[in-house]
Prior knowledge:
- The chain has 208 residues and is an all-beta fold.
- It has strands spanning 12-23, 28-31, 44-47, 50-51, 57-58, 68-71, 88-98, 107-112, 143-148, 162-167, 174-177, 187-195, 200-207.
- The strands form 3 sheets. Strands 1, 2, 4, 5, 7, 12 and 13 form a 7-stranded antiparallel sheet that branches. Strands 8-9-10-11 form a 4-stranded antiparallel sheet, with no helix packed on it. A two-stranded antiparallel sheet has the order 3-6.
- It comes from Panicum miliaceum (Proso millet).
Amino acid sequence: MSSSKPKPPILFFLLLLFLLASLAASQEFTYKGFAGGGGNPNLTLNGIAEVWPDGILRLTNETSRLLGHAFYPAPLRLLDRNGTAVSFSTEFVVTVVPEFAQLGGHGYAFVIAPDPRLPGSLPSQYLGLFSAAADGNATNHVFAIEFNTVQDFEFGDINDNHVGVDLNSLVSNKSASAEPVNLKAGDIVTWIDYDGAARLLNVSILLL
Ligand SMILES: *[C@@H]1O[C@H](CO)[C@@H](O)[C@H](O)[C@H]1NC(C)=O
Ligand SMILES: *[C@@H]1O[C@H](CO)[C@@H](O)[C@H](O)[C@H]1NC(C)=O
Ligand SMILES: *[C@@H]1O[C@H](CO)[C@@H](O)[C@H](O)[C@H]1NC(C)=O
Ligand SMILES: *[C@@H]1O[C@H](CO)[C@@H](O)[C@H](O)[C@H]1NC(C)=O
Ligand SMILES: *[C@@H]1O[C@H](CO)[C@@H](O)[C@H](O)[C@H]1NC(C)=O
Ligand SMILES: *[C@@H]1O[C@H](CO)[C@@H](O)[C@H](O)[C@H]1NC(C)=O
């Protein structure tokens, strides 16, 4: 039995064009491009993520096994004083630009995490979220919505074009096929709404 399967190279980069978010407790912000004042992006960047002068945030490029992170620069309160998770909403646009139309890299994710460096995180199938050792550890305190363009059997991925809810692990707690949307086909608008009182998460995507 063969124990290693060759992975397709990572052959795309991502452009995050626009982001707006709000938390029920009245913390609200909008990015109309990420260039920021005086050319300083108002984001905490890590890995090879960079902001172009026109305000586009590029997370990765065509070279294999690279990752990029971009986080809102200030901590956000996500628990009410009485311990209830706050409601939040966000809307953003991401474009995957594959070098070859049918051959994508591994994907991207919306992340809420205690540390913007996501220490120890690895590229490729780890989506810049976890390491092999940290995957599944409850002390990660990482919530992510993954937009996954490669089927990784080690994490039980349902196909090579899906959205998953990740709680401390790349083995998604819930996942759904992105069909009929192809995550690699162009500008994808994403809405993520969480109702803290109802504990209801709603993720919607649309190909522009
Ligand atoms: C950066 O974001 C923080 C948090 O929202 C805000 O307080 C600050 O004014 C922003 N700075 C710039 C230069 O936009
Ligand atoms: C991608 O970025 C890395 C790090 O900046 C760089 O070394 C590499 O040459 C870039 N690849 C391409 C294809 O531009
Ligand atoms: C927690 O506090 C919020 C206001 O901050 C309130 O709306 C909510 O009902 C409270 N939840 C519980 C379980 O007490
Ligand atoms: C989980 O992470 C904590 C803190 O980083 C570490 O102490 C612990 O050993 C990890 N557990 C496992 C099973 O790797
Ligand atoms: C999903 O998360 C919930 C809450 O932590 C847990 O009870 C459930 O077992 C998880 N399901 C899977 C398939 O991981
Ligand atoms: C989920 O969000 C979409 C888009 O905003 C909306 O059309 C739909 O009604 C929502 N579903 C639920 C169950 O809230």
